[in-house]
Design goal:
The relative contact order is 0.10. The protein is mostly helical. The protein has helices at about 5-25, 35-45, 50-65, 125-145, 150-165, 200-205, 215-235, 235-240, 245-260, 265-285, 290-295, 300-320, 335-345, 365-370, 380-385; strands at about 90, 95, 110, 175-180. The N and C termini lie far apart (about 55 Å). α12 (about 300-320) packs parallel to α14 (about 365-370).
């Protein structure tokens, strides 16, 4: 058989396998572990004290969420985008400050890791963050209880953000993280929409609710499809796609997540195979360091955040039959080694000596350990959870 025929048959069967795997997960969980969640639900229903305590805390938050919102880019608007469209998301670059040597402070200058409080005068970022956090909590609450009040509130919040023509966000980030005196928006602002990755899983957990109507599902998927198109085709999207550090990782994570959610398996697979795998070469070292993140003023925070992005990509890749967990470059760079590099600091066996201008938090790394548990038996991840409480999947 000619080589080109073998090549194309191989590609066909790989794609067919991906389609089959995706068909099994369509409208199901993408970033959450369905088996772990099902086990937690059984423990909750059968009276496990620790699980009941954890879920009750979740439900207390969900009950508060019943009285929050709505959230929208059209609410609390203090600055309209240059487009003049109040539906366009606007945010200011966090690490850029007025130049004291200039009368009007422009163009702004960069101070890595130091947040300019001016950014909090704009509210689109916090509105999106609150919407995502609230819908996530409501989705989990419905999953554990089946009480439709949680799904109804989530449906109302989702309709406001994605569907209602008076309040919906336009599916672009053309004006995210603008720098005064420099530009009206930057591709780096795309990292602010990574929180949207919780929406597909929240919807999946509420699929059997009468409040999650087919028109809501299709409308949200249409929005995500339009936003995915913008990510792939816009200048900002292409700029972020080319980013070498955590911005590139989080860009890929969003593309793959949103592509799987909207049924575009080809885009999801191409992102992993053509970009994500190649990022291991530039982002990792053979001893597990992430030099582009270690060079930052918040080296611990960025090393953890970037690894979190990789773990999410590994979870998503599982749906495509691609194993990023065990993937290694020819010289041995891998996700596993990056986690192994950070473990001694989490276990208090070593002190972090790289620059870190903010207090060290272990939250991201604990979630990484939660999802990586079972993938790397020799890393003694269970030892971590003898020192720290195991995080709940909704944290």
């Amino acid at each position: 058989m000619p080589r080109f025929v073998i090549k194309y048959l191989t590609l066909f069967f790989l794609l067919a396998g991906s389609l089959h795997l995706y068909a099994q997960t369509k409208d199901r969980l993408l970033l959450q572990d369905s088996a772990k969640l099902a086990s937690l639900k059984r423990q909750y229903q059968t009276g496990d004290v620790a699980t009941i305590t954890a879920v009750n805390k979740l439900l207390a938050d969900a009950d508060k969420a019943l009285n929050t919102g709505p959230f929208s880019v059209t609410l609390k608007k203090t600055k309209t985008a240059p487009s003049g469209n109040i539906h366009d998301y606007v945010s200011q670059a966090p690490y850029w400050w007025a130049d004291p040597s200039k009368p009007d402070g422009k163009p702004y200058i960069r101070k890595d890791g130091e947040r300019n409080p001016e950014i909090y005068l704009l509210h689109d970022d916090t509105q999106m963050g609150e919407m995502c956090k609230t819908v996530k909590v409501l989705g989990f609450a419905y999953y554990f209880t089946g009480k439709d009040q949680y799904a109804q509130q989530a449906a109302d919040l989702l309709t406001t953000w994605f569907i209602n023509p008076n309040t919906r966000m336009a599916p672009n980030l053309n004006y995210a993280q603008y720098v005064p005196g420099v530009n009206d928006g930057r591709g780096t602002g795309i990292i602010e929409s990574r929180g949207l990755s919780v929406i597909p899983d929240a919807l999946a957990m509420m699929q059997d609710s009468k409040s999650i109507r087919p028109t809501l599902n299709s409308g949200i998927k249409q929005w995500f499809g339009d936003y995915l198109k913008w990510l792939l085709e816009s200048k900002g999207g292409k700029d972020e796609q080319a980013a070498k550090n955590n911005h590139g990782t989080m860009y890929d994570m969003q593309v793959v997540d949103f592509a799987l959610f909207t049924g575009d398996v080809k885009v999801a697979r191409e992102a992993i195979m053509k970009r994500t795998i190649g990022r291991m070469e530039t982002q990792f070292t053979t001893d597990g360091k992430q030099p582009l993140e270690l060079a930052r003023t918040k080296s611990w925070g960025y090393s953890n955040m970037n690894l979190d992005g990789w773990v999410r990509l590994a979870l998503l890749s599982d749906h495509l039959g691609i194993d990023l967990w065990q993937r290694e470059t020819k010289d041995g760079k891998s996700i596993k080694k990056c986690l192994a590099f950070l473990m001694p600091y989490l276990l208090k066996q070593e002190n972090w000596t790289y620059q870190q201008i903010e207090p060290i938090s272990y939250n991201d790394l604990l979630m990484t350990c939660y999802f990586a548990a079972g993938k790397y038996p020799d890393l003694e991840i269970q030892k971590v959870f003898t020192m720290y409480p195991a995080p709940a999947p909704w944290m």
